[in-house]
Design goal:
By secondary structure, the protein is α+β, with helices and mostly antiparallel strands. The chain contains eleven helices and 14 strands. A six-stranded mixed beta sheet has the order 6-7-8-12-9-10, with helices on one face. It has a five-stranded mixed beta sheet with strand order 2-1-13-14-11. A hairpin with a 2-residue loop joins strand 4 and strand 5. Helix 2 crosses helix 7 and helix 9 runs antiparallel to helix 10.
Length: 323
Amino acid sequence: MRIAILSDLHSNLPALMAVLNDLAERGIEQMWCLGDMVGYYSDPVEPLMFIKRYVDEDDWVMGNHDAMLADLVLPGDIQRTPRLRAMEIDSEGGRIHVRGEFLSPEDWKMTNGTPIKALELNRKELDSHEEASNFWQTHFTRDRVKPRRKHLAGRDYVRVHASLHNHIGRYIFGWQHEILLPKEFKALEEGKSSPAPQTLCFGHTHVPTLVFGQPGIEGFGLESVFIVPGETYPLGQRWALINPGSVGQSRDGDRRASYAILESDSQEITFIRVPYPYQQTAHRLLEKGYPEGLARKLIEAPPVREMPKIWKDHHARNGADAK
């Protein structure tokens, strides 16, 4: 089976349409989505409708921005439901009201104003679209942040937004050999339901990632792959961590949308980059009053601060602007 793995759409409609047009030519039979359909950019309705109509219910999870959207309480919510339970929080982004079902008060206090402002505007737009509004209110539940497991052709796959240790909040990067990668493989081992090779599919970092782990007596032998777009990597009998990168907001220096294709029968993974009119996304968000810094992130696509120089150099050599 040929499966498209998408993550971190972030309300970026031009990027999503470019990816869907690309995968329509590739014989995709199934789609998985690893969360963060909303947040940051200005078109939240279409990503939710894409999930509702084209992704099986057991093949998508919520991300942290989806959880934040479900947690936020707007003034209209209180007017419509006077008994609505909400906490008043003094966050880094100002005073807000939240339900506290997904994020703790401490999490909200440390959240800056950019994602909060974008989510407030997303909510207002969703409120005017009955089908999309009903969808998130019905399906954005605590159970939806939990990992989803699937066994295909002799391999177990676990889908989660961020991490098995923190489902919506931990960042896992391919260079963290001594810190988080061994712990993530250990958690994958503890939760396994069969002797088959285990694979964790996750998002959240916005950086395409492939790490192989070989279980051994003294732990896991780790191999982080310097991914080349369009190249196919056999999984074989090795355990793996796979991040398809972000459809909506790249953070590896390459502004193109990113997703991955899994061939479950042959157990191979290919990472795809797709150009899209990012200027259109930037123009739309500025027109709708979204934070200007989000437009700069699309245009510049800066790598995450934690990325070591050797990884930055690799992405520069293989990015959209490589000669």
